[in-house]
Amino acid sequence: MNNFRKVATLALGAAVLLSAAGCASGTSPTDQQSGSDPMASLVSAAQAEGELTFYGDANETSLQQWTQGFTEKYGIPVNVLRMPGSELAQRFQQEQAAGQAQADIFSIADRVSMEKMVSAGYIAQYTPKDADLYPADQSKAGYYYPLQNGYFQTIAYNTSKVSADDIKEIQADPIKAAGDPKFKGKIGVNMPQSSQQISALYYDWAEGDASSTYGWDALAAMAANKPLIQSSATLVQSLVQGEVSIAVGITDSLEFSYVAQGAPIQFVYPNPTVGGYFSDAIVKSAPHPNAAKLFMEWATTPEANQLYTQITNTAPVNSKVKDERDIVKQDWYSAPSTDKVWFDFINDDAFLKASAAKGDFLTKWNDMFGYNG
Amino acid sequence: MTLLERPGIAPGEPGGTATEVVAAPPGGARRTRLRPPSALAIVILLLLVGLVAGPVLMVFVGAVQSEAPGLPNNHFSWDAVFRVYFSGEFYGSLLGTLGMAIVTAALSVVFGGIAAWFLTRVAVPLRRLWEFGLILPLFLSPFVGALAWLLLAAPNSGIINVNLRWMLNLDDDAVLVNIMTLPGVVFVMLLFYVPYAYLFISSALRNMDPSLEEASNMNGRGTFATAMRVTLPMMRPAIVASFFFVAVLATGVFVIPAVLGLNTSFSPLAVEVYRAMTVFPSNPPTAAALGTLLFWFTLVGVYLYRRSVRNSNRYVTLSARATRPRMVKLPVGRWVAAAFFAVYALLAAVLPYLTLILMSLTPFAITDMRNVRLSLDGIIQVWKRPDVSTAFGNTLILGIVVPTVVVLIGLGISYVVVRERGRLGAVIDYLGTFPIAVPGIVFATGVLWLYVRTPVYATVFVVTIALIGAYMPQGARFASAGLLQIDRSLEEAARMNGASKLRMLFTVTFPLLRPSLLSAWTLLFVFATREVNEAVILSGPKSRPLSVLAWNYVEQGSLQQAAVVGLFLTIVMAVGILFARVVLRAKLDSSNL
């Protein structure tokens, strides 16, 4: 009954939207002229296609469980192809350029890559009926929407390895705390070479907006603590098992599941930090175009965003979803205030120049930390 | 060059004649006696062109583009090549990588050689068990193996340190073992490379003519002197060959120091290749150009390797007569050796596997055994995934098809190279060894560029093709080693009696080679089941094998699930090896390689 009501609501909404938009994009559910229910015919057309292929770079478990929600509702199995973002973007471009129609939905954390796909003409125009529930500045209206929430860089600590006072100190100013000499030999850092985002995080502190507060001195203090230098997946492991007490530069989405399972870790969003949102879109050459549209309709609903939030513990983006995560009730946790997050590093010329192969930023970081990557 | 038209016997068609055009160097009357290429050689050449030369060529093409080949705004450009070869940016990486490869290879050969001598010449108790323990690390990917060691022996939080502290009432910061040091990292690296050296050297030791050692012994030389002055010189080709083989493989060893947090004084080339592919903004031409940079050095390695293998004809006993090496009597030493091997097997196989089991049963890393909570959640979660059965199926397809095809083509390659020789033989030998010279991630990208416009794209078939190409060197090497041991007079007898070459191959060569081919098959089965670098790049949503699932779990930090899939993989391998052993009567040890 409940499902029926949901479908009916969706259908009504879609109908309203269609008449309002005048079907300008030409990708709307079919049969509107005949007066039959467009949503119902979209559902049956999608079910007739029988499956959906989802390309994404979010984590494997989240994607599997989330798309499973779609399968449970409409009986359409979803094939997930999960790859690291950069390889996914390369592969998707290769396929599109070669006329290989494989992907129905394309989802990626890096917004520049998504923009590239839109301007290359690989992304279909489609406006799901719940589109306006998503922040406009993280969407491209009619193309892609941030359906899989955001991700932000943190400084994390192992609660079994630090004292209550230490926690207070880290919570107050994690960037300074990581440079406190009492943590000598107990900190771990992610290297800026491991992703552009980590690079931007260090850059923001050393040379960017926060350089007057922190500057290279703050990094020099961290370096003086002789940190263990590892990339994120290994660093989070070292933190959880207690090899290091503090770790700089781990994405929150990596940490949420450990917290939920009771691992002794907590984390803080440094001020400033860097972050981004996943964007989801329909592929123009989708081999299952109706299933893709139906998926977008489903994925934009508050229910679907609620499900994604529940699976990943990330903050919900859909304006109708209340943030009821357990973690919000923890006194050590405060959500990142988005006005203090640097999203736009991918368009910052000074940063791009400094962090490029010929720039001096990575060399300086390496010299300071005694790293040779 | 002059072209001569001459009639000749076309191999493969006994008794028939055909006119063939052969290239003859000017004035080289004697050279014209070179046999024309056989039909087998041509078929093998064509296969290698498709499986190996195509992807490798695509890598070279990709290196001189502005973007990945096939993209709309791509054009010809020397930028990537210039940056990699002439800007100086990567010279440090190159030298460091070569140095690390050479040191790793040298140490692997020393330890593998000593282990091989003890296990073939001394009646060490429980020899079969120790040999298995020595080879077992090959079942684990080096990445998972390194993670297991991080959990076991990290200085502050490793299982060994944490638990011995409370058991022995030590200080909280007492460090008993520390794997995150240079010796620790070298130790873990050797676990993964000693088995190769061991397999090469011990098979040569087993097949060596024992009469020389006996003569030395009868003339009053002691065990040590005989080993150093007779056995060691006889083993030179096998040692040199395994040295180059390991050195080439070890250029990709970076993952172990990276996981163990060892800050090497350089950034390994393989890391640079990986970053060029995976860090935004990715730069496939640079990755391809880096791939070609390694290629030239590997080419030199292959040349030297070929020389040493060629010379080995003079050293290895070729008769079909079984040889039984003289056993050295070390009444005390054999027990000391057994104790050493037991410790080694404990460190190399038992502890990492126990750690893997523990990882799969705990939601996150808990190293203090007093606090461990065990649960089956991870296993259940992985098992309930909708695509786990597909992944099992794909792993089985790869595990069966790849080693079978590689062994068959490898047999063809080795026949042409060892028995027919000639120029085409050399070309085939080089082609068959090329894939080892190109980093897996780059080779797979070459395969992707080559096949993206074909209907087989994104199917398990493409992954299969890539792995067949990638493992061709191993297949050819194992088959040649076996073939060198077979007296060719047996084959000649078949030919004299009128059998066609194909018939001879199937009725004489193949049955005689069966044990070594089955051993090669088993080892390649392990490799194909475990492989991840290439499968990640090439598999589609329905063609992902288990190894790719495990890798994705590691990437998202879910070690429990990664360990579960790692155990599934080990079960697949164990079943496969058991099948090979019981049904096909193949053994995964060195005696047949």
Overall strand count of chain A: 12
* The CATH architecture of the largest domain in chain B: Orthogonal Bundle
Question: For this structure, what is the CATH class of the largest domain in chain B?
Answer: Mainly Alpha
CATH class of the largest domain in chain A: Alpha Beta
Low-confidence stretches of chain A: 1-34
Tell me the strand percentage band of chain B. Answer: under 5%
Parts with pLDDT < 50 across at least 5 consecutive residues of chain B: 1-32
CATH topology of the largest domain in chain A: D-Maltodextrin-Binding Protein, domain 2
**CA distance, first residue to last residue of chain B:** 41 Å
Instruction: Provide the succession of SSEs of chain A.
Output: HHEHEHEHEEHHEHHEHEHEEEHHHEHH
Count of β-strands of chain B: 2
Structure description:
The complex is a heterodimer of chains A (373) and B (593). Chain A is of the alpha/beta class. Chain A contains 16 helices and twelve strands. In chain A, 44% of the residues lie in helices and 14% in strands. The N and C termini of chain A lie far apart (59 Å). The N terminus of chain A is likely disordered. Chain B folds into three domains: 36 residues, no CATH class; 253 residues, MetI-like fold, CATH 1.10.3720.10; 229 residues, Orthogonal Bundle (MetI-like fold), CATH 1.10.3720. A two-stranded antiparallel ribbon of chain B has the order 1-2. Chains A and B meet through helix 3, strand 2, helix 4, strand 7 and helix 10 of A and helix 5, helix 11 and helix 22 of B.
Could you give the topology of this structure?
The complex is a heterodimer of chains A (373) and B (593).
Chain A: H1 2-21, H2 38-49, E1 52-56, H3 60-74, E2 78-82, H4 85-97, E3 105-108, H5 111-119, E4 144-145, E5 150-158, H6 164-172, H7 174-177, E6 187-189, H8 196-206, H9 215-224, E7 228-229, H10 232-241, E8 246-251, H11 252-260, E9 265-268, E10 273-277, E11 279-282, H12 289-300, H13 302-312, H14 326-329, E12 341-342, H15 349-355, H16 361-369
Helix pairs in contact in A: 2-12, 3-13
Chain B: E1 2-9, E2 17-24, H1 39-63, H2 79-86, H3 91-121, H4 127-135, H5 142-153, H6 159-168, H7 182-206, H8 211-218, H9 223-249, H10 255-259, H11 269-278, H12 284-315, H13 333-361, H14 377-383, H15 388-420, H16 422-433, H17 440-451, H18 460-484, H19 488-496, H20 501-530, H21 533-538, H22 546-555, H23 559-582
Antiparallel strand pairs in B: 1-2
